[in-house]
């Protein structure tokens, strides 16, 4: 009996210590530490020109805000998207606000796949070889179908939407990262690969393809982090950003709340998390609590919460559609 009591006390102490450690590390990550983003603001030998950040899907939403936030920190920016007119408009806006910086535009439809699409990615990344690139933000992604709708049961999801979501959210980021890594490693200095995940990765009903592809993004990011570490590239940071709902994006213009920040606040918060030492981290403390709680919930409770979240979002979209 005595030995069981000692064992129980030991397990209790370890559990309590881990719990306290997790609480302190949460407080440290969100309230005490400073971002290490400026580690990536280093110059090419022979040049004092600011370094470059490449941001995919930066003609709108969170990607556009990443561009603004990094420009504020004096990074030159490569903007990527599918719509040349929209991209040039964003470039002009950025140039007006930050005339001392340079901005380039690359156009590639991320929903395309196959040898032609892959060689197009190689071509556009080759056209950036003259730049001192220190940051890649894999931001492009969508939960939307080709017709703009979001929710569908798998048997009702058109086959072309399955390919659309897999190409945009998984194939493109994989091929693009493969091509850009050579630029990031070429200078031997610190480099950052930041990839956008989604809390949908817990498995959201009627969002099976989106959930699966976002799971791909975070598994890819986690594995890449380990790959860099094992190869001894300790100055290459690979960070996944776990994302809950964000407003001020193409498909959501609602009022922001604590749990649903606008895209500018979200991009700022994600940049604040750089260098935190995690493999995947939520950008804001409020979404961080939700992420930890949903991960720790018993399955039955998690099922109910995810179902409620989807229902609420469906209703919000219906209300917004009626208003429009
Ligand atoms: N907003 C949220 O609540 C939320 C939640 C979880 C995760 N995320 C993730 O956050 C990231 C950004 O989402 P967001 O809400 O900011 O999206 P968004 O407002 O729809 O912006 C997406 C960006 O990607 C571009 N894009 C879309 N389809 C493309 C294509 N086929 N080829 C090239 N570029 C394309 C868009 O270009 P156009 O300007 O031409 O449309 C735009 O620049 C995504 O990875 C998403 O999964 C967002």
Automatic annotation (TrEMBL):
It comes from the Eukaryota. Keywords: Membrane, Oxidoreductase, Transmembrane, Transmembrane helix. PANTHER family: RH59310P (PTHR43899). The keyword Ribosomal protein does not apply. The chain crosses the membrane at residues 6-31. GO terms for molecular function: oxidoreductase activity. GO terms for cellular component: endoplasmic reticulum. Belongs to the short-chain dehydrogenases/reductases (SDR) family. This is NAD(P)-binding protein.
């Amino acid at each position: 009996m005595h030995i069981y009591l000692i064992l129980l006390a030991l397990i209790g102490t370890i559990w309590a210590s881990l719990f306290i450690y997790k609480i302190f590390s949460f407080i440290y990550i969100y309230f005490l530490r400073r971002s290490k983003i400026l580690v990536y603001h280093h110059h090419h030998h022979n040049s004092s020109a600011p370094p470059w950040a490449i941001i995919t899907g930066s003609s709108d939403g969170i990607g556009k805000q990443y561009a603004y936030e990094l420009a504020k920190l004096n990074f030159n920016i490569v903007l990527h998207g599918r719509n040349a007119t929209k991209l040039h408009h964003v470039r002009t806006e950025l140039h007006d606000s930050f005339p001392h910086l340079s901005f380039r535009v690359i156009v590639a439809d991320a929903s395309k796949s196959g040898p032609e699409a892959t060689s197009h990615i190689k071509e556009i990344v080759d056209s950036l070889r003259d730049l001192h690139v220190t940051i890649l933000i894999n931001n492009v992604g969508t939960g939307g179908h080709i017709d703009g709708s979001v929710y569908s049961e798998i048997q009702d999801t058109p086959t072309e939407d399955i390919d659309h979501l897999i190409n945009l959210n998984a194939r493109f980021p994989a091929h693009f990262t493969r091509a850009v890594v050579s630029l990031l490693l070429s200078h031997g200095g610190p480099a950052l690969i930041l990839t956008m995940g989604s809390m949908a990765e817990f498995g959201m009903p009627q969002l099976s393809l989106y959930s699966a592809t976002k799971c791909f993004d975070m598994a890819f990011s986690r594995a890449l982090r380990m790959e860099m570490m094992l190869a001894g590239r300790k100055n290459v940071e690979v960070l996944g950003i776990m994302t809950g709902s964000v407003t001020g994006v193409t498909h959501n213009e609602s009022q922001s709340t604590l749990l649903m920040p606008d895209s500018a606040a979200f991009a700022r918060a994600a940049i604040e998390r750089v260098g935190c030492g995690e493999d995947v981290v939520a950008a804001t403390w409020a979404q961080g609590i939700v992420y930890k709680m949903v991960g720790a919930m018993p399955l039955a409770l998690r099922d109910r919460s995810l179902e409620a979240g989807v229902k609420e979002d469906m209703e919000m979209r219906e209300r917004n559609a009626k208003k429009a």
